[in-house]
Structures are given as structure tokens and as C-alpha cells.
Amino acid sequence: MPSSVMPTPRREGDAPPPAAVSAVGLRKSYGDKTVLDGIDLHIPAGSVFALLGPNGAGKTTVVKILSTLIGADGGQAQVAGHDVAASPDGVRAAIGVTGQFSAVDGLITGEENMLLMADLHHLSRREGRKVTAALLERFDLVEAAKKPASTYSGGMKRRLDIAMTLVGNPRMIFLDEPTTGLDPRSRHNMWQIIRELVADGVTVFLTTQYLEEADELADRIAVLNDGRIAAQGTADELKRLIPGGHVRLRFSDPAAYRAAALALHDAARDDEALALQIPSDGSQRALRTILDRLDSAGIEADELTVHTPDLDDVFFALTGTAGVPDQPKEDVR
């Protein structure tokens, strides 16, 4: 596939990018069970947003409401500038949805799957074949195009699934568990596809059972728990919410080590390793404070490492869940 083009960074004073999704107070109940209890979201266009949460947290319900598959009981939401309740057709024309389970028809070829999707989008025969050929090439499926999709590997089926979603040239794509069941190489290939989509200006709404995937891809992450957003922000912002971060300094000179221990009186000592551990949230300001204290004392560490909690720590702390955030068989709610 062609190499992606890095988007031009936004300069200070530039207008913020328009919202691909804007939701306020989304609510949904099934009988006496409240699934969503007032969800607020703001997702800039041309970004990757990851929604994490344990089973039954309401992730799929959020996706279904935003993609107009079900209605909300309360609140408002706009997707690609269209109100999901007042203008569902406008939303559907602007989005693509790739579900957790492949929509590929294994009885027909990859090319026939693509042409069928082109027919559903009312493309002319000529335009449908042109779009199909371009997408098959983009997703490295040309050699397999004439083969039944049932013969495809898991990674090929997921690539075909996303290619079919792109036939309608959507401005926003919902990807529900796009790499579940894929081997590591296929997963990394899928990550590259997602990056290229965003480089082309597409907004990606991602649900995933792999916390490393959200950490790797998402510009912003929200953790959904008990029908509410427990926290949202960048991966680094979320990690700083959880205690346990620290800076570790290691010295080869015992005299420098002792002097640093005096200068950094709040540090935990490891006399055998000549190492100090200082509590830190991992921010640039906190790191600068430590370095300034060392500089003032005329001390230089031989090794400095910053340790911050990972997204697993964040997830477990916010949800109280001691397992993976998602399972492929998640309830539709």
C-alpha cells in the first residue's frame, strides 16, 4: 500500500478541527436497566478515538446510537454534521461501519463482494468497477480478487471488510474490534491501514479489546464503565491519573549517589544498585524539577528512566475489572 502522508500540524491560533462526533447527555435503557447514563463525547475530525470498557459497559450501544441503528432515550448527538435523530440518512451517507464479525460473503469472490457493495451504494457499473479495482489494489487483494472469500485468511477478510466499507467514501468509520483473532503481523498491518485512513482525513471510532492497540493508535481514549465515562483524554493523560509513576536514577559513582540521595530527600534508595526512585506523574514539568535539583547540586546521573502506569493499570483502576476489557462475544447492549 502507498505510504501515508503525515497531516500538517495545526499552528497556534488556527481554528480547531470540526467535530466528527458531538454528543451530549446520551441515555439509553432496556427495561429497568440503564445502559447509558448521560454520555458526552467530542471527537475532532481526522482523528482516532478509542472507546474502552468492560463487558456490558455500553460500548456497542454507543456505536449503534451514533450509527443510527438504534435511537437514544435522551440526549443529543451529531455525526459528520448531521443530527442522528433528525437526519439519520445524512449520517448513514457519511459513515461506514465495520462490525466485530466480518460482513464478507464467503460464497463469492472478493471482487464480487466489492461490486455488490458498489451496487448497494448505487454506483454506476463503470464507477463501481473503478472504485473496486482501486480499493483491491490499495488493500493488497488484487491477486486474491478472483478467489472465493471463504479461502481468505483472517487478515485478508478484515482488509476486504474495510475495503467494502470504503466503497461509499465515508468521512467517518466505526471499527468494532477490527483486529480480534488476528495474528501479530496481521494486527500490525491493520494498524497501518487505520493510520493511512486517518492521514486521508477519515475519522476512526475504534472499540478494541487490546489496550496496546488503543495506546498505539488513538489520539483520545474514553473509558466507559457502568454507563458513564469514567475518564477520557490522551493515553498519557489517562496514565497520569493513576499513582505509581516514578523516575529512576542510577549512578556508578557511590559519592554521586549519596549526594543525589541528600538532594532528593523524597527518593526511595536502593543502595545495592546505587539507584534512586522518585515518585512522579511522568510530566515534563515533574521531570524538569528533578533535573533542576540535580543540576543545582552539581550531580549527574548515569541513567534516567521514566516509569508510568500503562493503560492496563488505568483500565483496572477505573473499572475495578481484573480481566481484559472486552471479549469478542460482547452483549449487543
SSE blueprint and pairings:
Layout lengths: L18 E12 L2 E12 L3 E5 L6 H8 L7 E6 L2 E2 L4 H7 E4 L11 H11 L4 H14 L15 H12 L6 E5 L7 H16 L3 E5 L3 H7 L2 E6 L2 E6 L1 H5 L6 E5 L3 H10 L4 E3 L4 E5 L4 H13 L6 E5 L3 H9 L14
Parallel strand pairs: 3-8, 3-9, 6-7, 7-8
Antiparallel strand pairs: 1-2, 1-4, 4-5, 9-10, 11-13, 11-14, 12-13
Describe the fold and architecture:
The chain is an alpha/beta fold. The protein has eleven helices and 14 strands. It folds into two domains: 19-104 and 152-239, 3-Layer(aba) Sandwich (Rossmann fold); 246-308, Alpha-Beta Plaits (2-Layer Sandwich), CATH 3.30.70. Helix content is 34%, strand content 24%. A six-stranded mixed beta sheet has the order 6-7-8-3-9-10, sandwiched between helices. Strands 2-1-4-5 form a four-stranded antiparallel beta sheet, with helices on one face. Helix 3 (110-120) runs parallel beside helix 5. The longest helix has 16 residues, at 184-199.
